[in-house]
């Protein structure tokens, strides 16, 4: 450990230290899990991943966040990624896999990880598998959040937000008292530009084209669990637990 770390720990309140120690102790008996979450926008991955992360003591790797973090930390891979981004190029698959490789060596990823937003293509899946094979591990489960496009459209295009507070409403599932008006302030509600039917259609087309072959790729390996993602969140959580048992 770097000499700075010991001093830093002295400043951490005892309750926090004990909580972290107890968490690690509880986690030590959990089986290792390396998971991929696949699903279109609005399928509920964002709701389930924190629950899975806590339950199985995994680290959550969202590739977009990791890229930004690597760029900010100016790691060698981060510098390369920034060069690509500055040119307006896509960050290469090898770079992203390298950043994942770095991330999963952290203590928080000791029990495994949840990958979200990657792999999006079969080539990325193959590169990821190669990298894991070098470490003597592999993907244990791919959770496929299967949901009908029509249900997604209803879920997403019905979302309205109060921009100042972040309060969200849904025309069908959680409507405001007066349509288009925030309950608390009376301000007009707005829709995110990603939440319109046109944008959703494009995102879904891209998802089906690129990512469905990834599901087929992992199905052949026998690691895919299909979730019925249109169910209420609690029922989906139960399905996830069954799939990971």
From TrEMBL:
The keyword Kinase applies. Keywords: Kinase, Transferase. It comes from the Eukaryota. The keyword Kinase applies. Its EC number is 2.7.4.3. This is Adenylate kinase/UMP-CMP kinase protein.
């Amino acid at each position: 450990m770097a000499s700075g770390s010991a001093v830093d720990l002295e400043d951490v309140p005892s309750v926090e230290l004990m909580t972290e120690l107890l968490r690690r102790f509880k986690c030590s008996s959990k089986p290792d899990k390396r998971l991929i979450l696949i699903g279109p926008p609005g399928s509920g991955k964002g709701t389930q991943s924190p629950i899975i992360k806590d339950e199985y003591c995994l680290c959550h790797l969202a590739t977009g966040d990791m890229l930004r973090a690597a760029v900010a930390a100016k790691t060698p891979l981060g510098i390369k990624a920034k060069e690509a981004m500055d040119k307006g190029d896509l960050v290469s698959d090898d770079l992203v896999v390298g950043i994942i490789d770095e991330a999963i060596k952290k203590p928080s990823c000791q029990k495994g990880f949840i990958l979200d937003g990657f792999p999006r293509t079969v080539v990325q899946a193959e590169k990821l598998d190669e990298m894991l094979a070098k470490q003597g591990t592999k993907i244990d489960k791919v959770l496929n959040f299967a949901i009908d496009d029509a249900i997604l459209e209803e879920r997403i295009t019905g979302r309205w937000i109060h921009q100042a507070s972040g309060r969200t409403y849904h025309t069908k599932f959680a409507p405001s008292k007066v349509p288009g008006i925030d309950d608390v302030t009376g301000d007009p509600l707005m829709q995110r530009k990603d939440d319109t039917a046109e944008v959703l259609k494009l995102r879904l087309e891209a998802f089906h084209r690129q990512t469905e072959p990834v599901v087929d790729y992992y199905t052949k390996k026998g690691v895919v669990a299909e979730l019925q993602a249109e169910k209420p969140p609690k029922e989906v959580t139960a399905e996830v637990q069954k799939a990971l048992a």
